[in-house]
Amino acid sequence: xxxxxxxxxxxxxxxxxxxxxxxxxxxxxxxxxxxxxxxxxxxxxxxxxxxxxxxxxxxxxxxxxxxxxxxxxxxxxxxxxxxxxxxxxxxxxxxxxxxxxxxxxxxxxxxxxxxxxxxxxxxxxxxxxxxxxxxxxxxxxxxxxxxxxxxxxxxx
Length: 156
What we know:
By secondary structure, the protein is an all-alpha fold. It contains five helices and no strands.
């Protein structure tokens, strides 16, 4: 009976490690990025890691702030301040994404699409009759970023 309990405990611990281990490693790895490359980054260089992170931050900032400017009337001065902040985040991402890995290229593609989306959105707020689908464009940006993160984890 004692051996059966030991095996049940061992199997339970193995299952727990299998089910929860990757998430724990990911969270631990995110916490040590300042010390070097995190555990979840594989063989990715530190600059590569910052590239994808900076691109994601720019995209998330746009997505979160978009709610404030999607319904008229829009305060153009407030939009200008927000757009300046976004341009700063995009500049940071472009600066960080000068690496040659595939993940940096995908992140650069996402940042380029985001920059274009912001320009088109700005034009539409100012009365330009540009037909565009911001939701679809954001999906494209998200796909680029997802692929960049996958490549980064693989060390590419």
